[in-house]
Amino acid sequence: MDTTRIPQPRRQVRTRVALEVTVNGVLNFVDGQITDLSEGGARINGASMPARSRCEIHYGGGVTYAVVMWSEIDRMGVRFPYELTHGPLYNALKRARNAVTVDPAQIFLSNRAPVFGRRGLS
User: Fold this and answer.
1) Using CB atoms within 10 A of its CB, is residue 86 exposed (0-12), middle (13-18) or buried (19+)?
2) 32 closest CA partner among 66, 82, 4
3) Where are the domains of the chain?
4) What range(s) does the PilZ domain occupy (predicted)?
5) 17-101, what's its fold?
């Protein structure tokens, strides 16, 4: 029997955010910033707790429970036992996904005259 695991694509889309949060572990509160968020988990920079530990993420007056999946000295990845469907973190995720991003290069190309230089030399 083959026991190699085939990587599966993520079910949720990860979204870049910058959310200041407080992470509550068993013995301490640590301030951090969520930089990557989806309905199923998040990456938190500036905070670190042991892998497989449980924690609470405090944001916007709400609390979201999480389990630490991986941890480094200055960041960690957490999984939410229950997918985000409501609350302050979910609302922040929706706002980030609804934010319209415009590629600056496209703006300049659309307003650019078909001439050479600032003075329009040919």
Assistant:
1) exposed
2) 66
3) 17-101
4) 8-85
5) Thrombin, subunit H (2.40.10)
Is the model more confident about 69 or about 100?
69
- The amino acid that residue 109 corresponds to is L
Strand, helix or coil for residue 97:
helix
The residues near 54 (Cβ < 8 Å, ≥ 6 apart) are 26, 65, 66, 67, 68
> From CA 121, how far away is CA 117, in angstroms rounded?
6
Mean pLDDT of all residues belonging to the chain: 84
> 3-class SS at 107?
helix
pLDDT higher than threshold 90 for residue 108? no
Render pLDDT for 13-39 as a digit per residue (tens, 0 to 9).
899 999 999 999 888 899 999 999 999
